[in-house]
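FW: tagging you since you asked about this chain on Friday. Here's the raw sequence from the shared folder, copied in full. Didn't touch anything.
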Amino acid sequence: MLWCLLGLLPATAGAATVATPPTAPVMLVLGDSISAGYGLDAGQGWVFLLDQKLKSQGLAYKVVNASVSGETTAGGLARLPGLLTRHKPKIVLVELGGNDGLRALPVKALRSNLEQMVDLSRKAGATPVMFEMRIPENYGPAYTQAFVRTFTGVSEERKVPMVPFLLMRFASDPKFFQDDGIHPSAAAQPQILDAAWPTLQPLL
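HL: got it, structure written out here
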């Protein structure tokens, strides 16, 4: 399905929206087009909605979106040290790997890059969170299964929280995708946040 070719909530009743203080802990989002909000207007992407949800629930985190459309795990790994030094995050969300799979890059390199990002984040005093990725079945069962196992393997062995595949809830429904049939639409963004929130909430 075309959704696989990615280059890749409502506020609590009565909750007060709070301004983010200058000393608020940072949540760094290191992702690809899914988190960069490709094709969306400012304020529509799931990362923006996450920032608004945190504020509405009185959770004074500063969300820094360092996502880049088309990014691979190698690119994220190369950028991460500088981002850790600059932002000193408390939590690092690693939403990467989809582009590695679409380019059929070696699974061994994918795993190494994910492990290094986890280790670098922890060394900097941050809690890493991995995001599960999926690729089309036409890449062949051997590669596809090895790809998926890479995420679960790193998550289990490194004891890293992992968000289930963000597009799982609406992958077969074209109305949740942009005209290119590839990137999630504005209507899909709340559902993406809903998929991520159960994993993120206990860490806050």
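FW: Confidence is low (pLDDT under 50) at residues 1-17.
HL: agreed, and Residues 24-203 form a domain with the Rossmann fold fold (CATH 3.40.50.1110).
FW: great, closing this out.
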